[in-house]
Amino acid sequence: MSLQAAEAAQKGEVLRYIGTMENGKASIDISSVNSTSPFYSLDGSDNLFVITTERYKTRPIIIRGPGAGAEVTAAGVFADVLMAFV
Hints:
Helices cover 28% and strands 35% of the residues.
């Protein structure tokens, strides 16, 4: 366990990769989040989008669903390799 993960766990938090897009600029970072964050309960390859606007500041729009995962990604890469020989 990394130091950052250990510090998060000690506070009852978890680490998540969180990307943001604001004013046309995108960034991604590893963030420590607590149980009040919608990112806290993500599991496995789940993806989550939180859309915050002027009208949805206090209760943002949340879209959650499965990500590709290892099996689907591997199958896609394998299919691409096979198509290169057709």
